[in-house]
Amino acid sequence: MPTGHEALVKGLEHEWPRYLGYFVSFAFIGGVWIAHSNMTRFLKAADPDLMRLNLILLLFVSFLPFTTAIAATHLFASNLSFHDVTVSTTAERVAVVLFGLDLTLAALMLYLMLRHAGRTPDVAADDLAKEELQAFATQRRAAVLLQASATVVGVFLSLLAVVFYLALAIFYVIDPVRLVRTRRHRRASMKGEPAEN
Q1: Element (H, E) at 86
Q2: Could you say which DSSP state residue 195 is in?
Q3: What is the distance between the alpha carbons of residues 83 and 64, in angstroms, rounded to a whole number?
Q4: 158-189 burial string, b = 16+ CB within 10 Å, else e?
Q5: DSSP states along 38-86
Q6: Fewer CB near the last or first residue (10 Å), C or N of the chain?
Q7: 36: nearest Cα among 101, 99, 104, 111
């Protein structure tokens, strides 16, 4: 007869889709927050269009707890074990695609914000900031395409799509740090100064 401890451990083992969904959402929101913070460093002012795009970004980010719960609830709803992950039900695929669509739309809004900030007069702090915003927008366009591709994968292979969502989210948390260092070194070398780490 299992004890209360064994029942808890067994119950927690079956909750792994919820942990995975939570971690994907947390990493994605972290990446959006980092990108948004980096963007604001280069802004002189925000115009009404940028504020509207920001509000729509917030809308899609605010949907994440809902879409995460749907994906976590339906991902392996039949309590499949890890060795049977190649089988996914229609409900699992729909839930994972819904989650992916939310992630993709949030990524699209972030890209549109960056593109708008880099193209609109008097929004960027200066010409160098405008160049940085345009480069950042180009990178985030790739993020949107990758996120959308991962969502398409979810139509066929739900777990693989969630793994892609996680990998992209982690990459876009880590990548801005690398980009900031690279740009700092490039600017310092252009000015003939030693670069800080």
Answers
A1: none
A2: P
A3: 28
A4: bbbbbebbbebbbebbeebeeeeeebeeeeee
A5: HHHHTBS---HHHHHHHHHHHHHHHHHHHHHHHHHHHTTTT---GGGTT
A6: N
A7: 111
107: enclosing H helix or E strand: helix 90-119
Helix, strand, or coil here: 4?
A: helix
Determine contact, residues 71/15, Cβ cutoff 8 Å: no
For 25-67, how does the pLDDT look when each residue is reduced to its tens digit (9 = 90+)? 999 999 999 999 989 999 999 999 999 999 999 999 999 999 9
The full length of the chain comes to 197
Residue with tokens 């993709």: 104
pTM (two decimals): 0.84
Amino acid at 151: T
pLDDT (0 to 100) of residue 197: 57
Residue 124: what residue type?
Answer: A
Q: How much is the pLDDT for 87? A: 65
